[in-house]
Design a protein that fits this description.
Length: 368
């Protein structure tokens, strides 16, 4: 039985998913798995596919192989549940920090809880749930490495996010989840930001005083004073502290309310560190450079002006929270036509999400 056709014991099965167009270029893959039989099978499979392979049975051994042994992986494949003090995801985070680069990573896990998925997504890893399929693993590895080879710039490299601003900026994190705040703090501090975190809006207000360049990263839903209420309070006090609002809800109305309250951006959980860092960097940059903010507003206006009258109507109703079928009924057109207009709006405004669309619309000084 060849490695390509073998089933990984207790964890994986073969599949007919094609890997055509994705070939190995001799990259180094670090495999971390405490099941010795599975570890050896993965190693044999990847070597036969043309990769260099380093293997470890736990997170601490993997860390030592990099920090002391000189292993320089191009990709990490790790089980989530590893023996010892750190799990696979924590090990990946520490390796990326030690190497000062964000190599792609895959987490294998039998734990498909929402919390685990959120953490994996936040660390910008790919999650494959057990039992995974053998060729699925090799296909994902090849695809991630191909993307890495083709990328001109790694958007998560330290220094990519306005390092001059970061060194002098404070990020205020307000979220009720202690673990979430701890994770956010680690990411932000690794990129040069100073971090103050709070569980409630009231605790933040009791401690806050305007001063050095800063950005507020705040959950929309908090006990007591909610995130949008806090923004209204700051603006009422004449404070234009830039803010990024985060939420586990995808309700359009929350995103629009946050933007109207003065938020620079709105991002939904689970989100990757790259998305968060880009939002914070943009908020800080616009607050400190009026020319860049003006250029952004002019670009947003140009995007909105490129829309047809019907596309503007559809956009307004989408941002008001109407579903496509309700928009179709009100405008007297088919739901398919609404979807086509909606897709055109997203394309012309370069928006990948409704919060992003709301940001463009409000930057163009539209009433939504």
């Amino acid at each position: 039985m060849t490695p390509e056709s073998a089933a990984l014991p207790g964890a994986m099965h073969p599949t007919d998913q094609s890997t055509q167009g994705c070939t190995a270029n001799g990259e180094m893959i670090l495999v971390v798995e405490d099941d010795v039989e599975l570890l050896e099978l993965l190693g044999t499979l990847l070597k036969s596919a043309g990769y260099q392979v380093a293997m470890a049975k736990d997170g601490m051994t993997a860390l030592e192989s990099v920090t002391r042994g000189g292993v320089q992986p191009d990709l990490i494949l790790a089980d989530f549940n590893l023996p010892g003090a750190i799990n696979g995801l924590q090990m990946i985070t520490q390796l990326r920090m030690a190497l000062h680069r964000s190599m792609p990573a895959i987490i294998l896990t039998g734990d498909i809880s929402r919390l685990t998925s959120r953490d994996v997504a936040f660390e910008h890893c790919v999650q494959l749930n057990k039992p995974a399929k053998l060729k699925e693993v090799t296909f994902v590895i090849a695809s991630l490495l191909a993307q890495q080879r083709n990328a001109k710039n790694d958007s998560e490299r330290p220094g990519q996010f306005a390092p001059g601003i970061a060194r002098s900026s404070i990020i205020f994190v307000v979220d009720r989840d202690d673990l979430f705040r701890h994770t956010i703090r680690g990411v932000l501090e690794s990129h040069g930001y100073a971090v103050h975190d709070y569980a409630t809006s009231e605790a933040f207000l009791a401690d806050y005083a305007p001063g050095p360049p800063a950005c507020l990263l705040i959950d929309a839903h908090l006990p007591g004073m909610e995130g949008v209420e806090l923004l209204h309070q700051l603006r009422k006090n004449g404070d234009d502290l830039p803010a990024v609002v985060i939420s586990g809800s995808n309700e359009v109305s929350i995103a629009v309310d946050a933007m109207k309250a003065g938020a620079s951006d709105f991002i939904e959980k689970p989100f990757g560190r790259s998305e968060m860092l880009q939002s914070i960097a943009r908020a800080l940059e616009h607050s400190q450079d009026a020319n860049k903010k003006l250029a952004w507003m002019q670009e947003a206006t140009h995007c909105i002006d490129s829309l047809t009258l019907r596309q503007r109507q559809v956009m307004d109703m989408v941002l008001a929270g109407f579903a496509s079928k309700h928009i179709a009924a009100q405008l007297g057109i088919s739901q398919r036509t609404v979807e086509n207009h909606r897709a055109a709006v997203m394309t012309r405004t370069h928006s990948k999400s409704i919060p992003a669309l709301a940001r463009v619309a409000l930057a163009a000084d539209l009433r939504v």
